[in-house]
Amino acid sequence: MPLLRQPSKSIVTSVISSMELTFDEFCSFTSTITKDAADIINSRDPSSIRTETKPDGTLVTNTDCDVEMFIRSRIEEKFPSHGIIGEEYDDKIKSSSYAWIIDPIDGTTSYHFGVPFFGILVGLLKDGNPVFGSMRLPMLNHMLVGDGSQCMIDGVRCKVKKFDGFERALILTSDDVRMSKSIYCESWNRLRESGASFRTWGDCYGYYLLCAGKADAMFDLDLKPCDILPIIPIVKGAGAKIVDFGKNEAIDLSACVPELGDKISTLFANN
């Protein structure tokens, strides 16, 4: 059973690919392509960056589009039978059970303002389930990979921290105002009264801090598959628990240290 509800667009086909991709092969491939993609981002003249607002109210730049096209081309060259799901372009459905999922710049608002808390996400789905994930933070020079049972930051295995009480906990979200105005506002406000510290170090950077043992939980609302599916194998590999409290088709969730999982699930269950 897939970890999260299936995306509304069909990304799974019935024919099983004869090619099995190992985690080591995934790491090698994504390390190379995301490094090259990071070079595109870091070498771009700020004066050449064009930003538009998409119909859903989020930002997109020409860099998002260029990076996604670059990553797509490398995947198509290496794995021509695999499907591709991307943030900025139409899905490419193939006969393989494998599909790559791409967010070329997760945290475009941060990128737009020159804040380094954004990343390149590339994940691999098999039969609709996220099996491998990678995250590169171009301006911070960090690379994370995970397969659900292990997570590495810059080649070194990592684990989430041990919960040591709310008074010593750090809880993150991409948008505190949105959480406070959402249908989960009562639960969120009760959590804010727990004594924990709160910061809006969001998007993929928040999940990096969780995996690095710096934070206890990360909350996000209304995520698209490209925003989160590449991250799932990374945070689970670091030992985090996923609490999906969204209603209907919404992907609203928290990734947290294991000791907080039941507390968050209970707190948000009655919304």
Give the helix/strand layout.
Elements: H1 23-42, E1 51-53, E2 59-61, H2 62-78, E3 83-86, E4 98-106, H3 108-112, E5 119-126, E6 129-137, E7 142-146, E8 151-153, E9 156-157, E10 170-173, H4 176-181, H5 185-192, E11 197-199, H6 203-211, E12 217-220, H7 225-228, H8 232-237, E13 241-244, E14 253-256, H9 258-268
Parallel strand pairs: 3-4, 10-11, 10-12
Antiparallel strand pairs: 1-2, 4-5, 5-6, 6-7, 7-8, 8-9, 12-14, 13-14
Helix pairs in contact: 1-2
Can you put this structure into words, describing what you see?
- This protein is an alpha+beta fold and 271 residues long.
- It is built from 9 helices and 14 strands.
- The strands form 3 sheets. The chain has a 7-stranded mixed sheet with strand order 3-4-5-6-7-8-9, with helices on both faces. Strands 11-10-12-14-13 form a 5-stranded mixed sheet, with helices on both faces. A two-stranded antiparallel sheet has the order 1-2.
- The radius of gyration is 18 Å and the shape is globular.
List keywords for this structure.
D-Maltodextrin-Binding Protein, domain 2; 2 domains; Fructose-1,6-Bisphosphatase, Chain A, domain 1; 271 residues; alpha+beta; single chain; seven-stranded mixed beta sheet; five-stranded mixed beta sheet
Question: Briefly, what is this?
Answer:
The chain is α+β, with helices and mostly antiparallel strands and 271 residues long. It has nine helices and 14 strands.
| Number of distinct beta strands | 14
Q: What structural category characterises the helix and strand content?
A: alpha+beta
Main sheet summary: 7 strands, mixed
Helical amount among residues, as a percent range?
Answer: 25-40%
Q: Outline the low-pLDDT stretches.
A: 1-18
**Global morphology:** globular
How much strand content do the residues show?
15-25%
The third-level CATH topology of the largest domain is: Fructose-1,6-Bisphosphatase, Chain A, domain 1
- What count of structural domains? 2
Oligomer state equals: single chain
Number of helices: 9
- End-to-end CA span: 24 Å
Please state how the strands of the largest beta sheet are arranged side by side.
Answer: 3-4-5-6-7-8-9
Whole-number average pLDDT?
91
Reported CATH architecture of the largest domain: 2-Layer Sandwich
CATH superfamily of the largest domain: Fructose-1,6-Bisphosphatase, subunit A, domain 1
Q: How do the helices and strands follow one another from N- to C-terminus?
A: HEEHEEHEEEEEEHHEHEHHEEH
CATH C-level name of the largest domain:
Alpha Beta
* Rg, alpha carbons: 18 Å
